[in-house]
Specification:
By secondary structure, the protein is an alpha/beta fold. It has two domains: 8-100 and 214-307, Vaccinia Virus protein VP39 (Rossmann fold), CATH 3.40.50; 114-212, Putative methyltransferase TM0872, insert domain (DNA polymerase, domain 1, Orthogonal Bundle). It has helices at residues 8-15, 32-40, 54-57, 60-65, 81-87, 105-109, 135-141, 144-155, 160-173, 179-189, 201-212, 214-228, 242-255, 288-293; strands spanning 22-25, 46-51, 71-75, 94-100, 229-239, 258-259, 273-274, 277-279, 284-285, 301-307. α8 (144-155) crosses α9 (160-173), α8 (144-155) crosses α11 and α12 runs parallel beside α13 (242-255). The longest helix is centred in the last third of the chain and has 15 residues, at 214-228. The chain is globular, with a radius of gyration of 21 Å. The mean pLDDT is 92.
Length: 308
């Protein structure tokens, strides 16, 4: 399956692309959004892109775009955003930041990456396979209590305790090294299943989030995006599960409007700390036609804010 950028036209519209603007695609993937952004820019426009996945940075899509002098691609994490922008001398000059969160289709489709339970492969799950422990390494050493926490908090898995107990018991017999081993173990431990959803869906999501520190990275990139945007610049985020969307929604709400310090009441107007963002419209979801063409878009939620 080829990678289809989710809500492409909606993202471009929410970014309010200026032909001479400077934009940042924090999740290059296979370049779907980046390619469309480049087509909207004139000779003075620029696009910076980031991806923590080495395969994405070395892909044919990346090499094709890199032939254009207006485009720059960096191998790095969300939390490196400010450093990359400052390195380019563009702090406070960015017209738009785009975040398309989650796992890309090429990552899911490659069994060697270990993201999917649909195909058997090594239990890896790392976005950057050269850094940190793999999912197999983590599962081999994590305490049962911590495993329950991760499954429940990051996967919203209601059978977290049963699954964690089964994993700890199984690893004492033999290491859990493949996606199939883990998926079958989770299915056996789950007393019930959700309609149209594999028993391992939530657990795989939770472990992937933990291995890649995804929520910490999201928190970091949201803060840094505000710092690099110019006044009037847009932040557009596409989330794929409730934990991500909740973080984005709360961040935009917190950074919008005025911030009062109750300890200083009554206060003057000049003493009120203003928020750095303003919310732009309501959340957006993919239309029925796009969902029919790309089922991955079904769970996508887009939120937009503007730097003030």
């Amino acid at each position: 399956m080829s990678h289809l950028p989710v809500m492409l036209e909606e993202a471009l519209a929410q970014l309010a692309v200026k032909r001479h603007g400077i934009y940042l695609d924090c999740t290059f993937g296979r370049g779907g959004h980046s390619r469309a952004l480049m087509q909207r820019l004139d000779a003075k426009g620029r696009l910076l892109a980031i991806d923590r996945d080495r395969e994405a940075v070395e892909s044919s899509a990346a090499q094709e775009l890199l032939r254009d002098g207006r485009f720059r691609l960096f191998h790095g994490c969300f939390s490196e955003l400010t450093a990359i922008v400052e390195q380019e001398g563009l702090a406070g000059q960015i017209d738009g930041v785009l975040l398309d969160l989650g796992v890309s289709s090429p990552q899911l489709d490659n069994p060697d990456r270990g993201f999917s339970f649909m195909k058997d492969g090594p239990l890896d799950m790392r976005m950057n396979s050269s850094i940190g422990p793999s999912a197999a390494d983590w599962i081999a050493t994590v305490s049962e209590k911590e495993l329950v926490r991760v499954l429940f908090e990051y996967g919203e898995e209601r059978h977290a305790r049963r699954i964690a107990k089964a994993i700890v018991a199984r690893r004492q017999e033999s290491p859990i090294k493949t996606t199939r081993q883990l998926a079958e173990l989770i299915a056996e431990a789950s007393p019930s299943t959700e309609r149209h959803k594999h028993s391992a869906t939530r657990a795989f999501q939770a472990i992937r989030i933990e291995i890649n520190h995804e929520l910490d990275e999201l928190q970091a990139v949201l803060r840094q995006a505000v710092q690099v945007l110019k006044p009037g610049g847009r932040l557009v985020v596409i989330s794929f599960h409730s934990l991500e969307d909740r973080i984005v929604k709360r961040f935009i709400r917190r950074e919008s409007g005025s911030k009062y310090d109750p300890g200083k009441l009554p206060i003057r107007e000049s003493e009120i700390e203003k928020g750095a963002l303003k919310k732009i419209g309501a959340s957006i979801k993919a239309g029925a036609q796009e969902i029919g063409q790309n089922p991955r878009a079904r769970s996508a939620v887009m939120r937009t804010a503007e730097r003030v």
